[in-house]
Amino acid sequence: MEPGTSPSRSDLEKAQRIVSAALEVLGDFGVPETRVARIAVERAANFLAERERERRLAEALRRAEEDFRTAAQERDWKGVADAVL
Fold first, then answer.
1. What gap in Å lies between CA 16 and CA 76, rounded to an integer?
2. Residue 37: CB atoms within 10 Å
3. Dihedral over Cα of 65, 68, 73, 79: its sign
4. CB under 8 A, 24+ apart: contacts of 60-67
5. CA 28 to CA 35: how far, in whole Å?
6. Is 72 in contact with 81 (CB distance < 8 Å)?
7. How far is the C-alpha of 24 from the C-alpha of 51, rounded, in Å?
8. Ranked by mean pLDDT, which of 18-22, 28-32, 59-63, 71-75 comes out on top?
């Protein structure tokens, strides 16, 4: 992963599986509260995945708006684009 970039979904899933497996092993050895920690890891992973989906959606909407404005300007419909957006 490049510095300053978000982890991919597969990176998040791998990290969640590794941490969950480690916590399960620790739980098998009697370390207390590993179930709670596993739930926290799962919820954190779900939160990060949702945030990434929101980021991708926002980026897609931004690109669509940009494409629409460009197409409107090419057709001399700038006023329409301004009114719609």
1. 51
2. 17
3. negative
4. none
5. 11
6. yes
7. 26
8. 59-63
For 25-50, the pLDDT digits (tens) are 999 999 888 889 989 998 988 898 89
Which DSSP symbol is given to 5? Answer: S
Cβ atoms of residues 12 and 49 within 8 Å: yes
Q: Which uninterrupted H or E stretch holds 44?
A: helix 34-74
- Tell me the C-alpha distance between 83 and 85, whole Å: 6
- Alpha carbon distances (Å) from 28 to 18, 34, 35: 15, 9, 11
Radius of gyration of the CA atoms of the chain, in A: 22
Distance separating alpha carbons of residues 45 and 52, to the nearest angstrom: 11
74, 79, 84, 85 alpha-carbon torsion, rounded to 10° = 80
Q: How many residues are there in the chain? A: 85
